[in-house]
# Entry
Amino acid sequence: MKRLDDQQPQIDRIREAGLRATASRVAILDHLQEDRRHPTAEMVYESLRTTHPSLSLSTVYSTLESFIDRGLLRRVHTPEGRLRVDGTLQDHDHAVCRHCGAIYDVARSGLRPQEAPMLPEGVALVAVNIEYEVLCSECQEHTAVGVGGSGRPGETNHPGDPGISKES
Ligand SMILES: [Zn+2]
Ligand SMILES: [Zn+2]
# Structure
């Protein structure tokens, strides 16, 4: 019994964020309260296209970007660099399957760096997120690769990494 009233919290949040609560914005934000996959824009679009035939993929993209800008959604960083979004704003960490990219929510433990790392001058630390690299149960079945391998060679790229100077 999904009634329009059920979307009122999303309508309020969109308005509080300073946006007009258009039908597509409300539908997208409402969908992301339930879609726990940390979906890409394409996945959101696929989920909504039957119920919202007028919605276009580019509208989904721009809506997700503006929601992220205004703090209604969290951007999820993925190794492949695609936009994925998280409707859960409470602090939590992610476990990412290194093989298929599935993202799982992980409750925060007390484990957290106590001090800000060596950040470039002038930048302000806003959040510390821990990402656990995992192999999901499905991928463990489908790959002969055991847990604890050395990982994909040369695939860790950290844009903006100040670069730790190697010992010469
Ligand atoms: Zn997997
Ligand atoms: Zn999450």
Q: What stands out?
A: The first strand starts at residue 74 and ends at 76. The first helix runs from residue 8 to 16.
